[in-house]
Amino acid sequence: MKLSITDFKTIIKSTPLVSIDLVIRDKQGNVLLGQRTNRPAQGFWFVPGGRVLKNETIENAFKRLVKEELELNLASAEFRGVYQHFYEDNFSDDDFTTHYIVLAYGIKFTGDLAKLPLEQHSNYRWFSEKELLECEHVHKHSKWYFQEDKQADACLKNK
């Protein structure tokens, strides 16, 4: 169900959003990041992902997001844990914060970066873990997936 901008703003002001982040690796273990075109985190390198929609199961949201973000039909992944992302801004010009409860999944990808959609990200690139942790243009929330202290802090880390 598509919400009006007014309704969506009210929801973001009032409650956390549930989302799925895709921690994508190639055969060499590099991590795929996209440069965000939208707020929050606009301009930063970030893992692909998106919101779980109302009345959508987590399984269906995962399949939809993999299709939308990677143009793949993929049904399996490794659950990495639950994280919380807090942003000082939101998708609009209004002054309120955004809070996400994030379900992180690790998957393998061997596709062509040139064929990835450009709706949410203007560019894609493979990063080594070391490179992404050292890069100031990689958003801290994406770095958390590779920092031991943040992984230990994940709310419901999968054991």
Features:
single chain; three-stranded antiparallel beta sheet; 159 residues; 7 strands; four-stranded mixed beta sheet; alpha+beta; Nucleoside Triphosphate Pyrophosphohydrolase
CATH class category label = Alpha Beta
Order of helices and strands: HEEEEHEEEHHH
What is the number of E strands?
7
Q: Order of strands across the biggest sheet?
A: 4-1-6-5
Percent strand: 25-35%
User: What share of residues is helical?
Assistant: 10-25%
N-to-C span: 35 Å
Quaternary organization: single chain
CATH superfamily: Nucleoside Triphosphate Pyrophosphohydrolase
The CATH topology, please?
Answer: Nucleoside Triphosphate Pyrophosphohydrolase
Mean pLDDT metric? 87
- Integer tally of domains: 1
Write down the Rg.
15 Å
How is the main sheet built?
4 strands, mixed
> Low-confidence parts lasting 5 or more residues at pLDDT below 50?
none
Annotated CATH architecture: Alpha-Beta Complex
Structural class of the helices, strands and pairings? alpha+beta
The dominant shape is: globular
Question: Helical stretch count?
Answer: 5
